[in-house]
């Protein structure tokens, strides 16, 4: 994620890339995408990332839930 980029724009890019990967036959699980997004957020979301990792079950956490949580903190 770039500094100043909105969560909505970032997730648009993420969804586009994951759809391209799925189109090429790659198995892309929500859990993998969620973990990658949490690692690539800018430092202004560090406290939100920690809260999500500690309070949510990342195995069942959906991309849509992550996006709405991050947009609420944006």
TrEMBL record:
<protein>
    <recommendedName>
        <fullName>Retrotransposon gag domain-containing protein</fullName>
    </recommendedName>
</protein>
<dbReference type="Pfam" id="PF14223">
    <property type="entry name" value="Retrotran_gag_2"/>
</dbReference>
């Amino acid at each position: 994620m770039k500094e100043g980029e909105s969560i909505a724009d970032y997730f648009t890019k993420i969804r586009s890339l994951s759809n391209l990967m799925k189109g090429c036959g790659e198995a892309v699980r929500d859990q993998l995408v969620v973990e990658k997004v949490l690692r690539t957020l800018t430092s202004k979301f560090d406290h939100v990332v920690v809260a999500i990792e500690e309070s949510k079950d990342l195995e069942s956490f959906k991309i849509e839930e992550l996006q709405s949580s991050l947009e609420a903190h944006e």
